[in-house]
UniProtKB/TrEMBL annotation, chain A:
Its EC number is 2.8.3.6. Keywords: Transferase. The lineage of its organism: Bacteria, Pseudomonadati, Pseudomonadota, Gammaproteobacteria, Pseudomonadales. One of its GO terms (biological process) is beta-ketoadipate pathway. Pathway: Aromatic compound metabolism; beta-ketoadipate pathway; acetyl-CoA and succinyl-CoA from 3-oxoadipate: step 1/2. This is 3-oxoadipate CoA-transferase. One of its GO terms (molecular function) is 3-oxoadipate CoA-transferase activity. InterPro entries: CoA_trans_fam_I (IPR004165), NagB/RpiA_transferase-like (IPR037171). The keyword Secreted does not apply. It comes from Azotobacter beijerinckii.
Length: 259, 284
């Protein structure tokens, strides 16, 4: 089956979620990938949304973080304060699954502002739940489309920390979680290099060239010595994804929401 | 004991110019009708607190009711930007808006602390983030037992909190179901809490352990069916996703926004008249 680069991105991200893992899900691309994982290889994955549902099993993608179906299909619905206090800060989240407006080479995330904070060129929505998810989840996955404008050398603002300034900075900050372990894009998969914690390309999606990745990255991107090619989406994965998107469009009259 | 009165009377009596006001509801049960009434009554210089400003605060900011916003995620969910919020922050229209920006975990903890009667909340947060550099009220505290440095943020203690809920009984006891967000904490953190409800019934029939706010903890209960629109009340209405999309072009320009609130909010007597006017337009 033929597939789009966006489908490749979602499928590649979904594959990173292990069956049975407990996942704190952001709305938009993370929610789409996490639900695809649940509908394919990881039926026992536990999806937690910051509005309060624990173990949500929506049949269509939520447009907002508080759609009613998340509550109706959840194992339990708890107050938002409890989500952050007991379940995230309490150390019960295996994977934090985040989107971003911009990311840098150490996996730090900006969702706050482009330009000066007090005289912004573009005012973005802000932090939401991401800073503490990035800090306290045992590990973090980041999913976003790759371009010069989204993969930048220097962030105007660090909303949610990844590996900070690189090296052992994260450890020195005293953060409990391991931080971002992969950035999944429509072109490739990046993972932090041992020691420096700088993100390097470890797998190219089928048909993508190194030049394309270089052109669409704002820093001098490096490639791992052992550069893999991502396995193309299987028919099972594509059918599940397209069915999910079709159900979502039928239910909402639009595609699943971006936070 | 909560007084069962109209929303107009509740806003007149319990909200003053300059108050710190929290209209809470996490995507679900957003108290939209209360924001309309604040605009109708021309309330001014409000400090608005809310995790997700959403359309409900885009309205209040664009209408010139707010001098300060305390928040943690300011977008139109599933659609994009809040244009009135952005215009106020980026261009100072209709007036300068001071912003105090937090994360969700921070504000959720700050409401818990407020409801607990504490001056501040403590949480493991912000290490490595730039937010403390632009928000001076995010500070740190050292654990006296372990030496761990943790974030300390002031509790939220609004003068007035308004929430929307499914139903109340005739004494004013309120039952909230579905996604609860921080509403219980926000109500208990406030000096005065107003609850708008879908329905007033003889018996709440609240299940054991349900989220019930007792009447004696509330200032007022107001019957406003559909008062969360375009948000929803689980069991009563669906989220009006179309309205969230339609809001984008309305709020995008100052002129279309002002024309809209003049027609639909300032030009209607109350929320039921607003609903009728909106339904008439949608039928066209």
């Amino acid at each position: 089956m033929t597939y789009s680069t966006n489908e490749m991105m979602t499928v590649a991200a979904a594959r990173r979620l292990g069956n049975g893992s407990v996942c704190f899900v952001g709305i938009g691309l993370p929610s789409k990938a996490a639900n695809l994982a649940r509908l394919t290889h990881a039926p026992e994955v536990v999806l937690i949304y910051e509005s309060g549902p624990i173990g949500a099993k929506p049949s269509v993608l939520p447009l907002s973080i508080g759609d009613g179906e998340l509550a109706e299909t959840a194992d339990t619905v708890v107050p938002t304060g409890e989500i952050f206090r007991y379940w995230l800060q309490g150390g019960r989240i295996d994977v934090g699954f985040l989107g971003a407006a911009q990311v840098d080479k150490y996996g730090n995330i900006n969702t706050t502002v482009i330009g000066d904070y007090h005289k912004p060129k573009v005012r973005l929505p802000g932090a939401g739940g991401a800073p503490e998810i990035a800090g306290s989840a045992k590990k973090v996955l980041i999913i976003l489309k790759q371009s010069h404008r989204t993969f930048v050398d220097k962030l105007a603002f660090i909303t949610s920390v990844g590996h900070g300034e690189g090296g052992d900075h994260r450890k020195r900050l005293g953060l409990p979680g391991a931080g971002p372990v992969a950035i999944i894009t429509d072109l490739c998969i990046m993972e932090p290099e041992a020691g420096t914690h700088e993100f390097v390309v470890t797998a190219l999606h089928p048909g993508v060239t190194r030049e394309q990745v270089i052109e669409n990255t704002g820093w001098q991107i490096r490639f791992a010595d052992q550069l893999a090619v991502t396995e193309a989406p299987t028919e099972t994965e594509l059918v599940a994804l397209r069915d999910l998107e079709a159900r979502t469009a039928a239910a909402h009259g639009q595609l699943g929401g971006e936070e | 004991m909560a007084e069962i009165i109209t929303l107009r009377e509740a806003v007149q009596r319990f909200v003053n110019d300059g108050d710190t006001v929290a209209l809470e509801g996490f995507t679900h049960l957003i108290p939209t009708a209360a924001s309309h009434e604040l605009i109708r009554q021309g309330k001014k210089d409000l400090t608005l607190v809310r995790m997700t400003p959403d359309l409900v605060y885009d309205l209040l900011i664009g209408a010139g009711c707010a001098k300060k916003l305390i928040f943690s995620w300011g977008g139109n969910p599933g659609v994009g930007s809040l244009h009135r919020l952005r215009d106020a922050v980026e261009k100072g229209w209709p007036q300068l808006l001071e912003i105090e920006e937090h994360s969700h975990a921070d504000l959720a903890n700050a409401y818990v602390a407020g409801a607990s009667g504490l001056p501040f909340a403590v949480l493991r947060a912000y290490a490595g983030s730039d937010l403390p550099k632009v928000n001076p009220v995010i500070k740190s505290v050292t654990c006296p037992f372990t030496g761990e440095v943790l974030a300390a943020v002031p509790s939220v203690r609004p003068d007035v909190t308004v929430i929307h809920a499914q139903r109340a009984d005739r004494k004013g006891n309120v039952l909230i179901q579905g996604i609860l967000g921080v509403q219980k904490e926000a109500a208990l953190a406030a000096k005065r809490a107003i609850v708008t409800v879908e329905e007033i019934v003889d018996d709440l029939n609240a299940p054991m352990n349900a989220c019930v706010l007792p009447t004696w903890a509330l200032a007022a209960v107001c019957l406003v069916p559909g008062g969360a629109h375009p948000s929803y009340a689980h069991g009563y209405s669906e989220r009006d996703n179309r309205f969230y999309q339609d809001w984008d072009p309305i709020a995008r320009s100052r002129e279309s926004f002002t024309a809209w609130i003049d027609a639909f909010i300032r030009g209607t007597a109350d929320f039921s008249e607003y609903k009728a006017k909106l339904a008439a337009q949608e039928a066209k």
